Amino acid sequence: MGIYVITGATSGIGAKTASILKEQGHEVVNIDLKGGDINANLASKEGRAAAIDELHKRYPDGIDAMICNAGVSAANGSIPLIISLNYFGATEMAIGVRDLLEKRGGNCVVISSNTIAQGAARMDVVGMLNNQADEDRILDLVKDYDPATAHAFYAATKYALARWARRMSADWGARGVRVNAVAPGNVRTAMTDQLTDEMLVAVRALPVPTNYGGDPLMDPTEIANAIAFLSSPEARGINGVVLFVDGGTDALLHSEKVY
Ligand SMILES: NC(=O)c1ccc[n+]([C@@H]2O[C@H](COP(=O)([O-])OP(=O)(O)OC[C@H]3O[C@@H](n4cnc5c(N)ncnc54)[C@H](O)[C@@H]3O)[C@@H](O)[C@H]2O)c1
Question: Which SUPFAM superfamilies match (predicted)?
């Protein structure tokens, strides 16, 4: 059985993923702000460094999966937090444990979002995240933006995260480590509980071909199953994909894009 590290598994999608993996017999390590096996603030460089150190101490012979799930929504309104946690809290954690993943032929799954298909992402920020990746500089550049535009930064971090997974997959794959992304639609968790009335109107207006069986939000189990599959050895042929779990919204909006 494997050693699965997951961030943000105290609640929501992460908690459900952790419980599925535990039921499968795996050892699961939750890194979270609170209630984790390792408590750390992954929005800070110090928090990430401490968590990475701790994982090296506990698992010197390697880990099987790094699932980068912790994130905050635009409802939170803090653009710097969105940038630091959603993008750097995922990519820096994955990079920090790549050596541990290589030791056991492991894999990495990052949690993106189907907001990347909706045209709301600030592509200038996506470019800075992917190509510059200088957290301090980017935080300095975005510090004066109106928190009311946080949704465009949320979508930008999730777009950059999916692109990061695609970019890393060739190099990491050649070292035996798969890298994939899951892009969920709207899911019933603490995150969506925080949505404002205006945001809920936007959620309900989204075209979802399956209509999620008449429910505007999915259950976290639906996303957790996809994450558990992608991070399992059964998915060993899958590397560099962005798996949309969104009832077909991405396909509807981009039906001509077949790869
Ligand atoms: N819920 C949705 O509709 C939805 C849709 C698309 C993508 N997502 C993504 O799925 C992931 C999980 O979201 P969720 O809906 O389960 O949210 P959630 O709020 O239920 O869970 C987020 C978890 O991250 C942890 N966390 C928050 N700040 C942290 C920090 N600074 N350091 C460490 N941990 C921290 C929280 O304590 C919590 O356990 C996020 O990356 C989110 O962007 C969610």
Answer: NAD(P)-binding Rossmann-fold domains
